Amino acid sequence: MERIRSLSRARGMTVTSALAKAGVSRNAFYSLARRDSILPRTLRALGAGLGVEPEALLTRDDPRAEAMKALLAEVEAIARRHPGVDRENVRHALLLLKRKPIERLRLALARAR
Amino acid sequence: MPARGKPRPGGPPLSAAELRFLRALVRAKVDFMIVGLSAAALQGAPVVTQDVDLWFRDLNDPRLHRTLRKVGSGILEPVGLNPPVLLGEGVDLFDLVTHMHGLEGFAEEMKHAVRISLGSFRVPVLPLDRVIASKRALGRPKDELYLRVLADTRKAVRRR
Q1: What angle do CA B8, B45, A84 make, to 5 degrees?
Q2: What is the pLDDT of residues A50-109, one digit of tens each?
Q3: Which residue from A53, A74, B45, B61 has the least number of CB within 10 angstroms?
Q4: CATH of the domain at B90
Q5: Does residue B5 lie in a domain region?
Q6: Minimal Cβ distance to B14: which of A95, A97, A105
Q7: Chain A within 8 Å of B14 (Cβ-Cβ)?
C-alpha cells in the first residue's frame, strides 16, 4: 500500500486519483491491501494506471536482506552499548558465530594461506 | 596422489589427518588445550592464523607420546632458541606451547577451558578473555594488531 502511495505521489497523484484513473474501486484496493494474495487483474490495472509493471507494485522480501538487516540491527545494539567498537569487527564476528566452530577455524586458516 | 587423510597442498585447511590427531589426543585424555588465535577463531573472532597452537600440561606425558606414535609422529627437542616441534604429516599444522605469558599455570587455566565441538568430538579451548590476556601480556606488534578485533569479538559474543 505504501508503495502505491509513493508511486502515486511521485506522479503527482493521490491514491484516490490513481485508483480512479486505473478504474479500481476503493473497496477493491483496500481489499487488496489487506490480503496476503494479490488479485492480478487489480494489480495490472493499477500498474497500467501508474505506468509501471505490476511487479513494481510488489515489495519483494529477500530473506537474505532480512537476515542482514537483523544482523546489522544487532551490530547497532552492540555499538550503542559499547561506544567505540568497530562495527566491521562485530559484524564479522556475528557472521562467524552463525557458523560451526570447525568452519570458523578453517576460514581463519584458509585466509592465512 | 596424496595418501588418504593427508593434508594436500591447496586442500581444505584442517585435514582429516589433522582432525584425527586432535581426536586421538582427546580420546587418550592428554591434557592439552587449543590456545592463541585458533582458539579465538573457534570462538568467532574474524582473524587469520597459519597454525594451531596446542598448550600441553606436560610434553613428557606418556599418553601424549603414545598418541604421537599412533599417528606416526614425534617431538623434535628444542634446537637453539627454537621451541620443540611436532614431526610428521598431519601434525605440522600444530605448534607446541609449553608456557602462556600473562596467564596462570596450565591446571588453573584448564579449569576454565571451554569445550568446543569439532564434529564428532570436543576439544578444550582457552576462553577468549584469556586469549586476550595472553596477547596483552606478550605485547608484540602482531598481537597488538589483533587485540582490537578480539576485544570487539568479546563484546559481540557477550551480547548473545
Answers
A1: 150
A2: 887 777 777 666 777 778 888 888 999 999 999 988 998 999 999 999 999 999 999 999
A3: A53
A4: 3.30.460.40
A5: no
A6: A105
A7: yes
Task: Point out which residues pair with B55 in neighbouring strands.
Answer: B33, B97
Nearest to B159 among A77, A96, A111 (CB): A77
Answer yes or no: do A50 and A7 share one domain: yes
In a domain, B2, yes or no: no
The A-side interface with B (CB below 8 A) comprises 74, 77-78, 81-82, 85-86, 89-90, 92-97, 100-102, 104-113
A93/B14 CB distance under 8 A: no
pLDDT > 90? residue A9: no
Q: Each residue of A66-79: pLDDT tens digit? A: 788 888 889 999 99
The residue with cell 599444522 is: B93
- Residue B4, domain member (yes or no): no
- Determine the pLDDT at residue A26: 82
The tally of domains found in chain B comes to: 1
Q: Does B141 touch chain A (CB under 8 A)?
A: no
Per DSSP (E only), the strands in chain A are none
The mean pLDDT of B9-16, rounded to a whole number, is 72
Q: State how beta strands B85-87 and B114-117 pair.
A: unpaired
- Assess whether A53 and A9 both reside in one domain: yes
Residues A101 and A69 in one domain: yes
* Together in a domain, A71 and A31: no
Predicted pLDDT of residue B160? 63
Hey, what amino acid is at A77? Answer: A
Domain that holds residue A83: 63-112
Point out the least confidently predicted range of A33-47, B111-125, B135-149.
A33-47
Which residue of B8, B38, B47 is the best one to mutate when testing the A interface, meaning the one whose CB has the most A CBs within 10 A?
B47
Our CA dihedral for B13, A111, B94, B20, rounded to 10 degrees, sits at -20
What are B51-99's pLDDT values in tens digits?
999 999 999 999 999 999 999 888 988 877 778 889 887 788 899 998 8
Q: What range does the domain containing B87 cover?
A: 16-159
B132 in a structural domain: yes
- 3-state SS assignment for residue A103: helix
pTM of the model: 0.71
Owner of C-alpha cell 614425534 = B74
- A108–B157: do the CB atoms touch at under 8 Å? no
Q: How many domains does chain A fold into?
A: 2
